[in-house]
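Forum > Structural Biology > Help requests

Title: Can anyone predict the 3D structure of ADP ribosyltransferase domain-containing protein?

Hi all, first post here. I have the sequence for ADP ribosyltransferase domain-containing protein but no way to get a structure on my laptop. I'd be grateful if someone could post the structure tokens.
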Amino acid sequence: MSREPDNNELTIYRGQISSPQEIAELVGAYQNQSIVAVNSFFSTSKDRNIAKFFLTGAQSNLCDGTRLAAIFEIIIKKQDVSQFLPVADISQLSDFPGEKEVLFAPGQIFTINKFDIIFESGVNIYTFKMVLKTGFKECLNQVYTKVEKIRSVQVHDPLFHIGTLLAEEERFQEAQDLYKDLLSKNVNEDINYACYRQLMTIANQQHNTHEAKLWFDKMNEIKVGKTASPNHDDGIPIRTEDYSTLRHNMQEIQNLAGNFLSLSTHDLCQALNNDENLSNRFENLNDHVYNMVLIMIKNKQYTLAIHYTEAALFSSSISGIIPLRPSLKVKFYIQLGYCYQELKRNDESLKYYKMALEDKTHCSPDDYIRTVHCVGKILETTNCYEEALHVYIQLAEDYNN
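Reply #1:
Sure, ran it for you. Structure tokens for ADP ribosyltransferase domain-containing protein below:
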């Protein structure tokens, strides 16, 4: 009786030309039942013939023994796919029409269950049957740290996170294609907003200010509605007496960051590690952003303040390059809570206020009291009187202590 297909299991293939040393290491991993870690992107196909096609272009090298043909048959069980290390079907972006292509993010772990050598199409092909594994966090270190930062964006879609990893490696066109494909599916506003933000970031890295503004406007449409102007809130424009201060802070940010926008993440990290003064200058960058945010809030430009604040938090959490002092991060959270409160978006406001309160160590006593009071007021507004009462009681206890 033929075996019925398991919807929770997927078999994919990868054809690869390898050196004798690489094959020997894989055979050794099979014999010792040790894990195989892959720390780069790699593409596979649901069609074995497509995978085998990639072996046909190296017949001369295969004949002289300097290179060997290998086919990997990989079994994926859905429950073993880590949420931190996505595996995504990118068939719609494949270079081969009709191919069912599956892309693995870096950091995947496999075990080899079977090894064989078969003679096929005139050549010896080394075949490895592998199974995707999870639970090897200690083996991932640097890759895992990077991906955990990406997961903090709170977007649960493998295509989005593969796009983010591609952008990290400066494979911008591939990342843009993935984000645009996700946008075409219109999954939900959270994913759309995150895609627009990533596209804006890539456009800025490529010095395409026109395209960056287009993506910024798309983000703004989601935040405040399509009828709102990206340059104006419910309040008044920036006051004349504040404009020169705002302009000064914007100029300082440009002076601090402008010369480094063209550097890769790796080169920028090296520059910061080699120059303590440069690192200190970058630490000051977020101080200027915070000053700008305060001016925007003073002038009731809440949407602009939200964008600049979230951009600062996002840049710091994802790249880890631009330092953000814990005390300043708390202040950013408080200002976000206030902006969303003024825009009557109570759920978002509560989220950021509570994030500020979670870090009591870096929240000043005055900020703590004001923030708890704001939380209580929002709970009253939403008729959560009992919860508000508990908040006020906790505030009184903290104050007495």
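The CA atoms of residues 203 and 212 lie 5 Å apart. Residues 1-5, 136-152, 226-236 have pLDDT under 50 and may be disordered.
Shout if anything looks off.
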